[in-house]
Each structure stands twice: as C-alpha cells, then as structure tokens.
Amino acid sequence: MMATLLKWLVPWEFSWIFLVIFLSTCVLYVRGSRRLPVSFGRKLAFWTGMAIIYLSLQTYLDYYAEHEFFMHRIQQLLLHHLTPLLIVATYPATVLRAGLPLRWRLRVLRPLQRSWPWRLISGLILNPVLATLLFVVFVLIWLIPSLQTLAMLDWRIYRFMNWTMLISGFAYWSLVLDHRPHPPGRMTAGLRVLSPAVTMTPQILAGAIVTFSKADLYPIFEICGRAFTFNVLTGQLIGGVITWVPAALIESIGGLLALRQWLRLSRHGRLPRSLPRRRRAAHAAADVIASD
Fold first, then answer.
1. Helical pair 155-176 and 145-153, crossing angle rounded to 10 deg
2. Is residue 107 scored above 90 in pLDDT?
3. Which long-range contacts (CB under 8 A, 24 or more apart) does 226-229 make?
4. Would the pLDDT of 292 be above 50?
C-alpha cells in the first residue's frame, strides 16, 4: 500500500521551478496568516486550490493527463478555471505580502511595485481586454489538434501550455473578483458580472464541436499510448463535455461571486455614481494604498 501511495505522489515530470514557486508561496501564506486574521473558510479555499495545483502538475496524475484526452481536459479545467477561482476568491495578496519580512517589503517589494518594468508587465497582464482575450484564447488554441500534438511531444511546450492556462486564469479571475470599485479596480462592477457569460460562450461552442465530432481529433494520445482501454470517441466525447459543461458552471459561479461584490459595493455606497467626487477620490486613494 505504501508503494502504491508513493507511486501516486512521485512526480511524473519533476520541475524545480514549480517546486520553488509552490513552496515559497506556501511559506509566505503560513507566515502571513499568522500575522493577519484569516477566516477558516478562506484558508480552506486557498489550501484546496494549492493542493489541486500540486496534484495536477507534480504527481502521477500528470501521466494520465499526457495519455488520455479527457484526463487532460480535467487537468486543464482545474488549472484554468477552478484553482484560480478558488485561490483568488480568498484574496491572498495581502496575506502573502504580510508573510514577507518587513525589511523586504520596504526595501524590495515597494520599490519593485513602483518600478516601470513592474507597472508595464502588470499593466499588460491585468489589462481587462487582454486578460479576457487570453483567458479564452488559451483554452481554444490548445484544443487545436496540431498544437495539442506539439505539446504532447515536447515537454517544454507542454509545461508552457500548463503555465499559460494557470497564469491566464489567475489574471482573469483577479479582475472579475476584484473587491474594489472602478477606479481603482480595472473593470467596472457590471462588466465583472457580465464577463464570464461572454467568455464561456466560445468555450461552450468548442466543447460542443469536440463532443459531437465523429472523428478522432487527437490521435497523438494513441501514439503516446492511452492510459485506458475504452473507445477512443467515448473518451473524446467526455473531454468535450468537460470543456463544455463544468467550465461553464465554474464561470457561472464566478459571475455570481462578482455579482455579490457588486451588491456589496452598492450597499456600502461605493459605486462611482453613488459617491460625491471628493469621497470617490478618497476611497480610490485608500484602495490603492491597501493594494500596495
């Protein structure tokens, strides 16, 4: 039994870069949660998301993602939709920042956040139009059979695919679940609610195309060796449904969370139209300071 457990926990393709980033994030969150009051629910959601990331990328489950289409779609759904939504919904940035030593926050983090390279990169990644577009594009582009083949044959492209799914998911959900009004939030409260309905539409169409296809769209899994022995088209159908139904459900939940934030802002009189100009500027300045 111990040998079986070790088999599942040993990474299929080990990555030092992933391990360093993962452990650093865990350490910062533990330190930060000791310095700031964090509810049990927020901690549970954060650690659940982190566990899903690790299980998806650094255990034997990654083998099945490389050898069966529907398992690959489950992996991508977790990395792109569920995990970022879970973690971003806990608003971990403040906790992670508190986990840094005070000297690092003052001498490293604050100057870095004020530097032009940081502002340029964050401005691009968190641009509402670009982040929304990439959120959809990275789902669709890796469904193209020729690109799927390249990803499965080259480990560098495979890891790039997984990182693009994870990063684009975090960027998008951090915009949609932003608890601040606009400005300083980058999206208006109404657009945050509407956006998931827009982004899920092309993914539903792509999932339907894969689901109802009568041809084997991804023969690369046959070349690599399939992990399971059931019918090829059955596995493809399951993968298409996963791209279609659970993804749309998760995005609907994200839209409801954004609606909840919109109602909270309205209840506290923090929507731009309900605030006098001076109070709006004061709230915006306070939110910018809190986000630093």
1. 120
2. no
3. 226/67, 226/68, 227/63, 227/64, 227/67, 227/68, 227/71, 228/68
4. no
Find out whether the peptide bond into 272 is cis, omega within 30 degrees of 0.
Answer: no
The one-letter code for the residue type at 35 is: R
Nearest residue to 53 via CA among 163, 189, 135: 163
Distance CA(142)–CA(182), nearest Å, equals 33
Using CA atoms in the order 257, 262, 267, 269, what is the torsion angle rounded to 10 degrees? Answer: 150
Percent of the chain with pLDDT over 90: 59
Reported as a pLDDT band with limits 50, 70 and 90, residue 287 is: low
Q: Convert the pLDDT of each residue in 122-161 to its tens digit.
A: 888 889 999 999 999 999 999 999 999 999 999 899 999 9
Q: How far is CA 115 from CA 112, 185, 220, 233, in A?
A: 5, 20, 45, 52
Task: Note the pLDDT of residue 291.
Answer: 47
Torsions phi, psi of 217, nearest 5? -80, -20
List of residues 6+ apart from 2 with CB closer than 8 A: none
Q: What is the pLDDT of residue 288?
A: 45
pLDDT in tens, 29-69: 999 999 999 999 999 999 999 999 999 999 988 999 988 99
Alpha carbons 132 and 126: distance in angstroms, whole number: 9
Is 195 exposed, middle or buried, given 0-12, 13-18 or 19+ CB atoms closer than 10 A? Answer: buried
In the chain, % helix, strand, coil (3-state, to 5) comes to: 80, 0, 20
Q: How many Å apart are CA 69 and CA 237, to the nearest integer?
A: 9
With 0.70 as the threshold, say if the pTM is over it.
Answer: yes
Which residue type sits at 264? R
Q: Within 10 Å of residue 145's Cβ, how many Cβ atoms?
A: 12
